Predict the structure of Putative cyclopropane fatty acid synthase.
Amino acid sequence: MSDAAGRLVTLAEEALGARLPVRVRAWDGSEAGPPEAPALVIRSRRALRRLLWKPGELGLARAWVAGDLEVEGDLYQALDLLSGMIWERGEQAPRGTLGKLSAVRSLADPSVRRMARRAIALAGPGLPPAPPAEEAPRRGGARHTLRRDRQAISHHYDVGNDFYERVLGPSMVYSCAYWADPDGTLEDAQRGKLDLICRKLSLTADQRLLDVGCGWGSMVLHAAQEYGVRAVGVTLSTEQAAYARKRVADAGLTDRVEIRVQDYREIDDGPFDAISSIGMAEHVGSAQYKAYAATLYGLLRPGGRLLNHQIARRPLVHEDAYRVDEFIDRYVFPDGELAPIGTTVGLLEDAGFEVRDVEALREHYALTLRAWVANLERHWPEAVRLAGPGRARVWRLYMAASALAFEHNRIGVNQVLAVRTEAGGASGMPGTRTAWLGGGA
């Protein structure tokens, strides 16, 4: 086969009804497309077979993870140029041209049959390639049972603490940082986020803090060291728990901080004075969210505060049209679900909370993700050695694409401060933001 790139570009533009915004380099060495644009390098005809058998995001993701597809040049620029094929800017439902093509099930249209024959000729014969080993297997049964949630969390977090050290840096915080100085360091921004949460919760010495989804223990350590609290951190990841316990022991805080491998639904030793849930609620699922909110409400003492830090999607005209992103579901967060911020606030209020403050940090997450991608790229050989090339490629694509999603306002992230008011309605909250933030913004 000669000039595979030219044939690919012609076929793609005919199928998409638009010019392909990136250059294509094919397995035979041929190139086609805008010479100044980033190059989509198709290393094997197997990449085309993946797309033929699974058109859309999942086919592209499988080709990327397997190494059949690569980007040469600026990854952010390439993803931005291709974003209209994957996500349609301005649409409430993020379904671009490739997503629509994946819905085609009929070959009744003669033009579709002709394109299919040409695509098969380019791809070569063969059965669908097996998904890369990094793909989560299909799950059966009901979502968000205790067992299935443990499996989902393990898929994402139990990939090696050494790998996460290379990506997250010394802070070991895997959630949106708070960039008081956009030119500051990631470590300063993560410390700023942890301290912001402590101030919003108005933590004081010897209070009991529960951190739901405690990760590698950064929040409970910060709260104990800086505010003198007694903290319990719970996670479903055994690797995270082992790492967090060592950090607690190294800091000499085993008498003040406890790390448990435990589901939030299994906690029975409340009440707590404050609860933080940072980047965990995305795993809860819409069907379980009311129970999640009620559980946290029941674990708080009257007057206690909850800080819920959670990624949000944009609302849809028809909410039942929401679909989970296939790449994220198969490779990153199995069973993860996003909800609009209004839905989250409503469910927290339904549980009995009074919502006192909502702060949007969308741009902060874009900066955080770009910092994580830079860390990963800086430590790329080590990351590949520690987690394998496929896993490293998953995280690079996921974080870079997510940075653009936050920048383009396809998704957001919010801190919701809520209180379980006392009998009679007293909240214990100062009258102004400045007061309860201790002089902050």
In short: The chain has a mean pLDDT of 89. The CA atoms of residues 14 and 115 lie 8 Å apart.
